[in-house]
Amino acid sequence: MIIDSGSCTNVASALLVEKFGLPTLKNPNPYKHQWLNDYGDIRVTKQVLVSFSIGKYKDEVLCDVVPMHVRHILLGHPWQFDRKVTHDGDKNRYAFVLNNRSIMLTPFWPAKDYVDQIRIVRECKLREERLSIQEKKRKEKKNESEQKKEKNKKRRQRREKKIKKVSAFAKKREVKSALMAKK
Predict the structure, then answer these.
(1) Are strands 11-13 and 2-3 parallel, antiparallel or unpaired?
(2) Is the pLDDT of residue 37 over 60?
(3) In the chain, where are the structural domains located?
(4) Number of alpha carbons in the 13 Å side-chain half-sphere of residue 143
(5) Could you tell me which CATH number the domain at 2-107 has?
(6) In whole angstroms, what is the distance from residue 99 CA to residue 56 CA?
(7) 101-105/24-33 β-pairing
(8) How far is CA 130 from the centre of its chain?
(9) Which residue has the higher pLDDT, 130 or 120?
(10) For the segment 126-178, what is each residue's pLDDT rounded down to a tens digit?
(11) What is the helix (H) or strand (E) element at residue 61, kind and residue range?
(12) I want to staple 73 with a disulfide (CB 3.0 to 4.6 A). Which of 1, 40, 67, 128 is the partner?
């Protein structure tokens, strides 16, 4: 996350929206954005409501959705204005009051940020591994079910072959011998 008082918008990366499957809204005032990536002008047509937490601070921010590579969330001037944030440039701290609580945001030190990134990557890998294991189990159950159906089908076919076909028509000599046997 980046806090940037020079940005006139709050922005969420398209990757963040895609990864978490966040529902988007149509931007009521679409516009073109240029400086967030290397692709040139980008038409911003979607918005997303992003919930996030930093320590005990929890918030929701309406962000424009763009493909950016800097970070996943950029809190710009609108967020700072809405929260009446004051920035202490010497200590690089952001202070504001939310729900009658004083909040002070300070930047992560690079080492802390690195450790957090490693932890997040590990958690994502574990989640993906769990999901792939579950998917394998589902496929195995499906295959077992299909194999059982195939075996049952083959059994039915074998039984049908064993049943002798009986003709409803009798031959002339069979009728004669049956009539003679009754006398």
Answers:
(1) unpaired
(2) no
(3) 2-107, 108-145
(4) 6
(5) 2.40.70.10
(6) 12
(7) unpaired
(8) 14
(9) 130
(10) 888 888 888 888 888 888 888 888 888 888 887 777 665 666 677 788 878 87
(11) strand 57-66
(12) 1
